[in-house]
Amino acid sequence: MLRNFTLILLFTLCATASPLWSQTKGGLSGSSDGKEKVVKLYPNPATSKVNFEIQRNNEKGYELIVYNFLGKKMDHFKNLQVKNELNLDSYYAGVYIFQLRDKVTGGLIESGKFNVVK
Length: 118
Fold this sequence. Notes:
The protein has two helices and seven strands.
């Protein structure tokens, strides 16, 4: 019970810090604020599907991991395309967190959250 409470508290803290997570490291040249996103997520909130669109190419590749608010891994896209669709049929209503990671090093590139409403 204490473990579940700790996980909920941890993810609550992480979700409130999501504006910090969604910043990219280093930015792109030509970006006025240096905070250009790598992943475009839509629609948010979502009911039946979510689209993850990769805005910047990486030769090494990216992987995308989706967690529920309790920290359980829900989906893992290992071979991302430019546009990736996530079917939400097996998802309950709530907040979910995604992480975009470098496929080679496993380093965090970007993360954020989306809401499922049903």
